[in-house]
Design brief:
homodimer, mainly alpha, 2 strands
């Protein structure tokens, strides 16, 4: 499918409500249950998405749009949220994420991006040159990937509980070796 | 994590709202976009979950609780929804699923299941003997697996659009060979 700016803004705008519907009032110990090791729990994912709103997507879009002498993006800290959100509740993170995302989607729409501006580039510290359109597409896919991760981390808590159904439930064996 | 009946009912009760938040007003062609071949689009997933409400989970739970002379489950048709929902809109399926699920969660709670009743068994046509508790755990995991599938099917529509970000977005290469 070709990139579509309005579709992308729509999907981005729905993520906070989707996570709220899935995670609000989720009883303990589910919010903090992960797939093991350094993998993210639902709580971690919402914190990571907040980090993205504050330090990644819109920040990088501004760098691209500015077209200054240095259009390199700052590296992104995948574990910023761990110290930032110590002591927070999942519900408070969901509320914070919803506000940040609403503001950022409104900002994105306010830019009234043209095909020409979507084609402007910045430089990712690892991946090299990337256009604004690619950045926005990655923002959408990043949301959806972490939504799938939340569902997977929750599902795996019942890996043993499902008994004989395991072979019919492939999510239980997805990402046995975590990637990225 | 050990099976918990109230936690399970809670998670089951949240699935329709989660899918509504993610999929309501989703612009065309996203609702019908799949991972290719026989894989499910978001529209297919909601139809498949409706089939589960009408023909699978509660029906099988009743068979177990009845403890009749034949406690074999009927086979489940994974493609019943394709003919059933021709011409329907995704929004109408979301509404139908929400009603069916609300009724079934209310029914589940009305049974006031005890540890003894959760330990009763039926016979799955392929998997063999299974307890009510395992059936209910599988219902939860099945929901979460299909939620992840919706996110994945949507994400893959932007597989090319993300340009250089592909290696950082593992959902784009999950289930390249569909399983189950």
């Amino acid at each position: 499918m070709r990139f579509d700016l309005e579709h992308s803004a729509h999907i981005l705008s729905r993520t906070p409500g989707t996570l709220r519907a899935l995670l609000e009032e989720l009883p303990e110990p589910w919010p903090r249950a992960s797939e093991g090791g350094d993998t993210f729990s639902p709580f971690d994912v919402v914190g990571h998405l907040i980090d993205g709103e504050e330090t990644d997507w819109v920040v990088r879009a501004r760098i691209i749009l500015a077209q200054g002498s240095d259009s390199r993006f700052a590296p992104y800290d995948r574990f910023r949220h761990r110290a930032r959100n110590a002591g927070r509740s999942l519900d408070s993170l969901l509320t914070e994420f919803a506000q940040l995302r609403a503001d950022n989607v409104a900002l994105l729409r306010s830019w009234r991006l043209t095909p020409a501006s979507l084609g402007l580039s910045g430089v990712h510290p690892t991946l090299g040159p990337a256009t604004l359109q690619e950045l926005l597409a990655a923002w959408v896919v990043h949301d959806l990937g972490h939504l799938a991760q939340v569902a997977r981390a929750m599902a795996k808590q019942y890996r043993e509980a499902v008994g004989p159904w395991g072979p019919f439930l492939p999510i239980l064996t997805d990402h046995e070796l975590p990637r990225s």
